[in-house]
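Sorry to interrupt, but I need a hand with the structure work. Go ahead and set the record down below:
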Amino acid sequence: MSGWLEHIVNNKLLYHTIVAVVIVVVFAFLSSLVKRTMGWFARKVFAKTETELDDLIVATLQRNVRSLMVIFGLHVGLREIRKAAELDDVTLLQILSYADTLVYLAGIFVLVRVILGVLRVFINWSLDRVSDDSSQLKRTLGPLASKIVGLIVGLVAAIIVLDHFDVNIGSLLVSLGVGSLAVALAAQDTLANMIAGFVILADRPFRVGDRIELPSGQIGDVQQIGLRSTLIMNFDSNVIVVPNAELVKGRIVNFAYPHNQMRAIVKVSVAYGTEASRVRSILLDIARSHPDILPDPPPDVFFTAMNDSALEFTLIARASDFTKRYKAECDLREQIYEALNKHNIEIPFPQRVVHMKNPS
């Protein structure tokens, strides 16, 4: 046994190699200890906080702590082996150089993964706080924000790696700047619509399912809010694709905000000589008995005009939902028509009386 120990001690390369292996094993063992310590600390401290952000960040770090510590152990172990390398041992020095490069790249890769994990956790947590179950903010903006952050972090990591290997990145940065400017100028309309999409998703002037009126006068239900355009289904079941920039610039009427109630209006004409209070009573009784008409605010009837051939009354009520407005108005008209016939109230049609000055 002493012979083996003496052989190991006398063989400088073998001795430092064994020490390097022990270092890596120790760091791997310590990684488990650090991971458990982080878990204990998270349960004792972070679990008592009001936000879940700290718990999610610790969970992300726990998933990568073993890789980080093992890579750091490999780095220290390679430095230990390098102590045994002679200057004339070109092959060993070259192998160690390649190994250092691989360890460096692995370390950069794990660090990028940790940074991306933390940033994505923060993005999802932030979007959860400002969105609700019916909002498309997280579903639409979350993946895009993650991709943009991933692209930026990856680009920075690539620049750091190239700079580490003494690669001139000045020309590359200039090329990227010029290329970005060219892309921005060529796609300015698309970028404007995307920025408007961010504004709509964040400000939420309307949501999916809301009924809105466009500046052109078209009315429809919002089907989907995308980054470039918004899809609106009109009453003919046709989809209207509206660029987001137009929606941000124009005046939009949202019939579903701040509530889904919508006014129902029915105009009724009766013959001259009809008692106004009687007509008012009939219309109010019909409106109050309709299941889709809200009792508060109560429906009301107004004597709005004395036309050439008829007296005009306007029934104004509040439908419980904007999707029930047209059906409620249709039901009211049918019931009013039947009630006026039942009470022998004439519904006149346009007529003109002509007086002959010279009958012959």
Q: What stands out?
A: Strands lie at 211-213, 219-225, 229-234, 239-243, 253-254, 262-270, 300-306, 311-319.
